[in-house]
Amino acid sequence: MQVLDGKALSVKIKDKAKEDIKVLKSKGITPGLAVVIIGDDPASHTYVKMKEKACEDIGIYSIVHKMPDDISEEKIIETIEMMNGNSNIDGILIQLPLPKHIDTDRVLQTVSAQKDVDGFHPFNVGKLILGLDTFIPCTPLGVMKLLEEYDIDPKGLDACVVGASNIVGKPMMNLLLNAFATVDICHIYTKDLKSHTEKADLLIVGVGKPNLITEDMVKEGAIVIDIGINRLQSGKLVGDVAYESVSSKCDFITPVPGGVGPMTIAMLLENTIKSAWSRLS
Ligand code: GUN
Predict the structure, then answer these.
(1) What's the pTM?
(2) Hey, what's the torsion of the CAs at 97, 103, 107, 108, to 10 degrees?
């Protein structure tokens, strides 16, 4: 069994990003990322701090707009429109989830498709489905990069994606399909989860339920990618896969922490740099 080390790969990617930023700066361009965070969900604030720090470490200019839970939708839209028109900003990220009174679809559709470093705008979602060059959501893109780093080609593999969110599961499914895997996608209404997971050569899980995937649900020799991040009452961070038992059965597995998480942030940096390059074209 081999551990897919997302932490190590993210360090390599950040080193390359620093080199790119040097070149961009020599051309008078400092990549800029704007983040909008609404409310006081502690997990969201932790993620945003990690994104801010990663930007600072490699030389991306970042600005965080913190807004209270009861902010109006109009005020959010106004802030996004201001950033759409700010030529120092290459990427705009709206930290999800948004408070219940806000129409998330409307907010995400306000972000300029050219600055949509999360890849959540319907225009970019459409391009991803068609296999066209676009901004790809950071977590599934990070998974694809991690597979590539370990010479794992999804072509012809039976893949199973557990979790069908717009942020992770659906773009993951499309990326795997575009890479010629045969993709099975499971969700909360799936009748018999095990009957799908046990057939998978490549099992990708992003649900947010500790121990959802146990050893009996995994094929011998499978590649297992755990996107879940769950904090137990003890404070321990775990994924959705019962790591100890599953790792003894599969050929490759991502740890939590240190697997997909650091790759998500690395891909956000890459997407922001990709957007900054387009200032030259
Ligand atoms: N909330 C949980 N994951 C994500 C993500 O990848 N991007 C954004 N914007 N919000 C999130």
Answers:
(1) 0.98
(2) 60
